[in-house]
Fold this protein.
Amino acid sequence: NNTEYEEKISTLTVFSPEGAYGRSEKLKDPNIILVNDATIWTSGPQGILKGWDIMFQNGKVIKIARNISIGKSRALVIEGSGKHITPGLIDAHSHMAAASINEGFQSVTAEVRMEDVIVPDDINLYRSLAGGLTIINLLHGSANAIGGQNAVLKLRWGTLDPGDLIYKNATPGIKFALGENVKRSNWVDPLNRYPKTRLGVEQIIRDAFEAASDYKKSWNIYNKNIRLKKTSIPPRIDLELEALVEILEGKRKIHCHSYRQDEILMLTRVAEDFGFTIGTFQHVLEGYKIAERIQEHGASASTFSDWWSYKYEVIDAIPYNGALMHEVGINVSFNSDDDELSRHMNLEAAKAVKYGNLSPAEALNFVTINPARQLGVDKWVGSLEPGKDADFVIWSGNPLSTYSRCEQTWINGTQYFSLDQDKFMRNRDGKLRNDLIQKILSSPEDGNPSLKTDETGEKEKYSCFHEHGYIRKGGL
């Protein structure tokens, strides 16, 4: 009660997440959404539809047709004339919403899980929504021959519960890696960890699957022998081998970091020796050299559009890689592997038109339905078809044009980004920042002790966060 100033109740609003672009209120889900007279890129059998309507209800695509009538129902009607609508974009290789992604002490760490360390307030989630991205494949790093288990996320910005981001419909996956990163070519390895060569990488993978095969046999013997189950304890559960057994049984997809043709060929042989198929070769920058073999094996390819020469093993990368693999029948996607690049995956897709002469519809598929198939979620997302999730993006123009902007991004019928809301939050956050600065600089006469008169009568700048009253600002 013996204070030198009058305390005031704070008028600040709590945001979720804290900081810039945090939401101050719960998102509202309109029951029915109608976008009329738009150009709709379905990424499905209907192709590109000009001047059509699309209706969403309860988080799903309900109808795509001309002149949809909604009667007297309460619906959000969006004028789509001149606009382009696409499915939400999908990035099949990302490391956003995570930190410290390499468990590099061992060569095999199949037991670790990305879903346990998701960072839901990573600002890159919001920035990627501003580029029309709605789903990412969150992968472990590439320091291990066999890394950790992946997590497929929907970018539901605003939640602080990591579980709200996980897309449970996705097929379980795991990160493998080949090449320079695994054999530690580009940095000093104080652990001197095996393997140190490309042939050592192959052998470490073979040894792991031999161990997993033996582990599976021991459990099969135990489960089938009633007498043994009554008289013996079960085999010891090994979470690392459990994940590898799931691969052998076709229940978990491999997403393998790769560059050179010799190593890609090697891993297809290893997989076939153990009776499974590689899910997706990631990066796969020499895939064009052995495209027929990748197609024969049945793997997909998630590549860079035009990255090369950032290390020696990508010296033969070419920008036509994606188109050449697509021509032989491989399911191809473009990925980012980068938090900045993920903000304009639409322009990455456009490069397939420039380098390979793909049609615009085929190019957009590289960041929509194709990665959806690679992640095992194409039944629900990746295209605009009745019954699928209402994950869609509204663009100001052709989505493959550098002149177009993402105006709105929706996930399951909820708007997670819009230019109008973004402008509001920019102004709000700018005003809040200014208010906080003025609060620090204001005088005691204004009811704030940020400026306190000392014994000499001279005013000094202070911050008011110390338990005893003040801390000199210069000491913070």
Observations:
- Confidence is low (pLDDT under 50) at residues 459-476.
- The longest helix spans residues 198-224.
